[in-house]
Amino acid sequence: MRHKLGYKKLNRTSEHRKSMIQNMLNSLIKYEQIITTLPKAKVLKPQADKIITLGKKNNLTNKKILFSKLQDKISARKVYKELSKRYEKRSGGYTRIIKAGFRYGDSSPKAIIEFVDRNVEAKNIDVKKKDVDKAKKVTEASEISKK
Length: 147
Fold this sequence. Notes:
Elements: H1 14-31, E1 33-37, H2 38-56, H3 60-70, H4 73-86, E2 95-102, E3 109-115, H5 129-146
Antiparallel strand pairs: 1-3, 2-3
């Protein structure tokens, strides 16, 4: 029987677990795809779906609740301006979990959690333009050398 087992504790204190989930939610909203362990992804999925559902009901109360859960103005704004518009016809299931093998150090199962109709360009938000240009030059040079 599963009495009084409402959530996964992830071997952390409650403060650490809550802040970890909040940070992972902010990263997921910012980059729209993150790599983490499978148990953390399974805990994060319902939280992310609830955040998107809150953003879809666009009123002041939900905006305040959204900000109190995320504690990040940019993430909250992205949820109720961009993500809620993207998923307005979808009635749930905004995220997916893809198993991604095992971590090298401790063999823990890795997973990729992402939004279903994600923006592929969102992964390169923090990458500087110089770094992107260097990466393009390297791939072009390798393609030329293959010929």
